């Protein structure tokens, strides 16, 4: 990997974030029911192959390259997406428990630090999974749709993060000085 490339912008990170973006967008849009005739079941193939296998392989490559944070994140998420895809159809408390455990992984990734876009991406994913887990326990379809929108937002952030690394777009929010009249020195 080129030494001029900052952490979190290597090609495996870009590939991993694109795979996560596509999976989250399909998963989220399927749960929102905003597109007529598209359901979460339609996201199973994307979740299995893109979110599961491709993300897992990106994680293994990242681990081989020494990116332990990205490698761990992508390989664990890949394994969980693959599991979700092959067990789609499970419902109720069983699905709620799986989504809750999946949410805990997303929470760990959010709290692990890293770049701002990564934390926002994993944070939105965490909220989506938590809402969907609660919806499964409670049998609440409305909460599932709200969770779907959080997944769509997380997918959009993941897509932007990957594209920004390729297109050299801004990836951090500018910081303001603490108060009025305060100027930075340097």
What does this structure look like?
The chain has 186 residues and is mostly helical. The protein contains six helices and no strands. It is globular and about 50 Å long. The two termini are 32 Å apart.
What's this model, at a glance?
The protein is mostly helical.
> What is the molecular shape?
globular
Percent helix among the residues? over 70%
- One letter per element, helices H and strands E, the order comes to HHHHHH
| Uncertain runs | 1-9
Biggest sheet statistics: none
Report the total helices: 6
Average pLDDT over all residues: 87
For the secondary structure, the number of strands is: 0
Q: What proportion of the residues form beta strands (DSSP E)?
A: under 5%
Structural class: mainly alpha
Radius of gyration: 17 Å
Span between termini: 32 Å
Give the helix/strand layout.
Layout: H1 11-32, H2 44-64, H3 68-86, H4 92-111, H5 116-138, H6 141-167
Helix pairs in contact: 1-2, 1-6, 2-3, 3-4, 4-5, 5-6
Keywords:
disordered N terminus; mainly alpha; 186 residues
């Amino acid at each position: 990997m080129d030494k001029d490339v900052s952490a979190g912008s290597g090609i495996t990170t870009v590939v991993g974030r694109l795979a996560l973006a596509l999976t989250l967008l399909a998963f989220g849009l399927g749960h929102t029911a905003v597109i007529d005739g598209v359901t979460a079941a339609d996201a199973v193939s994307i979740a299995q192959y893109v979110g599961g296998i491709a993300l897992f392989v990106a994680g293994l490559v990242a681990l081989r390259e020494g990116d332990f944070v990205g490698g761990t994140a992508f390989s664990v998420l890949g394994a969980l997406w693959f599991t979700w895809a092959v067990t789609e159809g499970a419902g109720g408390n069983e699905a709620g428990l799986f989504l809750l455990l999946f949410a805990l992984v997303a929470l760990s990734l959010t709290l692990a630090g890293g770049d701002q876009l990564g934390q926002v991406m994993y944070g939105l994913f965490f909220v989506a999974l938590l809402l969907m887990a609660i919806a499964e326990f409670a049998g609440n379809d409305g909460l599932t749709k709200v969770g779907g929108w959080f997944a769509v937002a997380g997918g959009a952030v993941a897509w932007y993060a990957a594209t920004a690394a390729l297109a050299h777009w801004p990836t951090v929010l500018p910081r303001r000085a603490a108060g009025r009249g305060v100027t930075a020195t340097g």
